[in-house]
Amino acid sequence: MKNKSIEVLSVKNLKKSFILHNQNSIELPVFSSISFSLRKGECLVLVGPSGAGKSTLLRSIYGNYLATSGEISVYHDQSWINLVEASPNIILDIRKKTLGYVSQFLRVIPRISTLDLVTEPLLGRGDTKANSINQAKDILTKLAVPENLWDLPPATFSGGEQQRVNIAITLVRQFPILLLDEPTASLDAKNKQAVIDLIIHEKKKGTAIIGIFHDENVRDALGTTFFDIEKAKKAA
Amino acid sequence: MTKLLQTPLLKVENLSHYYGEQIGCANINFKIYNGEILGIVGESGSGKTTLLKIISGLLRPREGSIEFDKKIEGPREIYKMSEPERRLLMRTDWGIIYQNPKDGLRMNVSAGANVGERLMAIGDRNYSNIRYESSDWLRKVEMDLNRMDDFPETFSGGMLQRLQIARNLITRPRLVFMDEPTSGLDVSVQARLLDLVRGLVNQLGIACIIVSHDLGVMRLLSHRLMVMKSGKVVEQGLTDQVLDDPQHPYTQLLVSSILPV
User: Fold this and answer.
1) What is the pLDDT of residues B119-142, one digit of tens each?
2) Are the beta carbons of B244 and A65 separated by less than 8 Å?
């Protein structure tokens, strides 16, 4: 039980609502008083019907959405930082080293080859070129992205291929905490398994994961804890 | 936590400027750190270019202070420096990429000379070295070296913009200002230029302030975003947060007006 019980992220009384100023300033409440914590090697699965606010919660934790109130604490560089109050450059530093996010869709600069897209973040944090390329090739192989596609930009790839490239770009960096929004949504059974294997491997190394998986099999294969947003809302 | 203690490269405080009674920009505050790309967006007339001119040393503001962290002396207020000191800063530690490349280039000297000029300005007199460095930079911005001795007048818009980038980056500036660097370029050239800028900024670790009204460009290029309206900053934050979860009515309007492709 050496490393098993170390907490890496905690959410306290988190509230998020949207105010639409151009539609008579109506307020759309999504959730309030959400609290949970996440430990090393844990995979917390967010459950709830669509529209419950699972993606909104994930995006709030990543700083992509601005939390209305509450606290999101992340263990970063040997100290705890409250993301809700952190300045943009601290959030950027956290995203660079601690917190990885896999979105549902790939969004990258056009005309850059797949291999470069996966390699670049590694170079950016100071790895050597040879090492970065090796790691990139390794993860693309593990995710079964065909080698003849590596030199092409992913714009023309199939949905499933794009999604695996998207996963590769984030997972290659080995973040201590991963946020996964439907990483297996448009994959066939075989490729789904490749992604599951990779995530299980990460989990064993101690990576903490918060994920949204609609697929029951994926959920059962990966989940250690389940967090029901609807229940949490009612309890509040 | 080192980031907290780092001195900002550029610190702007309570900056205001008026054209007569007309507001140019009012009460602007921000900081930029090494290696950071800051985007400034807003409709035309919102004061973006005025702000850029002021912070790049081209227009003295009515009120406020702008401090630049100089390599040796540390933070200095740019409009309290002597004119020669500020000029030296502008051609060494700073780079300015103009919207119209003709403003930033000398059209009646060769491309190579345009790129080498800044080296000469800081005292380099070894011509073979200058030529070597210039050709190296032309190569980095993907220019055909056969065109090195041609006048920029014969170049296309995209080539001129890349020439301007090479001319500015050759002295390895620490801060680069860009005013609509991709406007007026066709989309394919634009994508290549974006990739080029981002790659160079990544490799050299320079900070960059980019003014544009193209939100797509900003999403891919900038880390942080500042939204301006009528001379004021109405919202600032992480680029993806400002674009995906805008808080101010004007930003919400701006983001919801993007045409899907």
Assistant:
1) 998 888 999 999 999 999 999 888
2) yes
Residue that has been written with the tokens 């229940």 in this structure: A231
Looking at CA atoms only, how far is residue A74 from chain B in angstroms? 13
HSE value, Cβ hemisphere, 13 Å, CA-based, for A82: 9
Kindly state the percentage of chain A with pLDDT values over 90. 81
Chain A residues inside the 8 Å CB shell of B33: 89
Q: Give the least confident one: A136-140, A186-190, B27-31, B147-151.
A: A186-190
What's the order of all strands across the beta sheet hosting A26-39? Answer: A26-39, A7-20, A69-76, A79-82
pLDDT at B1: 40
- pLDDT tier at B261, thresholds 50, 70, 90: low
ipTM: 0.88
Do A22 and B202 lie within an 8 Å CB cutoff?
no
- Interchain contact, A109 vs B194, CB within 8 Å: yes
User: Which chain B residues touch A66 with a CB distance below 8 Å?
Assistant: 237, 241, 245, 247
User: Are B245 and A109 a contacting pair at CB < 8 A?
Assistant: no
Nearest chain A Cα to B194, which residue? A109
- Report which of residues A1 and B13 the model is more confident about: B13
